[in-house]
């Protein structure tokens, strides 16, 4: 497990360059969404990461039909009179995918960007640049501080959330426990569910594997609390998207401490599937 660092956005020997993504605001003509200056000031939070391209595609209306995504993106369900979407992104940084999504949602919907307090100014600058560029009517977007593993009460007050976005967050092993603990806190039920296998907001997770031997430990613990459904049909090379929801819990369930969150906990009605997800991981392991 990698050792913690004083500032997770500035790990030792940081050496990263802007990533240009065709068809987005992160292009070479715009200096990679201002990434060069942002990386110097905010470290890894200032870069646009590889899984962003897949997430942007999934968060585009009509893309599900064109790419034959399965499951399709629920954010664009056209049910008349649907309740407003309230979307939260963890570790937003540049927030390129979330702001892309905001351009396609109505003003009744809200997106909350979150990151470490020191990174919130980057989120706010991204919102300002996007708003000036976008114009017209679109979802409301705000930024709030949220350090993984710490109290999420201020952010939860903006809920309840219908969706949670994660883009390339499964990276440093020492951050797996606080990330998982925050996900559990954000998806805690107000009362014990009595029907269905799953409950709570839908998590849309975009991820690129960099060290599967380490990352499998996160997904093994994550799968004890959440159902993972791989999104098929994207044709991505190394990136993957999962749609996830919490497994139902019983009266025995208690939100675990940071120290114990990676271990199995009582009170979870585990329905973990050893089908598509495991086939996917087996495929990745041999690539």
Automatic annotation (TrEMBL):
GO biological process: methylation
A GO CC term assigned to this protein in UniProt: cytosol
Any one GO molecular function term: S-adenosylmethionine-dependent methyltransferase activity
Membrane-spanning intervals of the chain: none
Assigned keywords, A-Z: Methyltransferase, Transferase
Origin: domain of life: Eukaryota
Pfam family, one: Methyltransf_16
PANTHER family: HEPATOCELLULAR CARCINOMA-ASSOCIATED ANTIGEN, PTHR14614:SF161
Name of the protein described by the UniProt record: Protein-lysine methyltransferase METTL21D
Organism: Vanrija pseudolonga
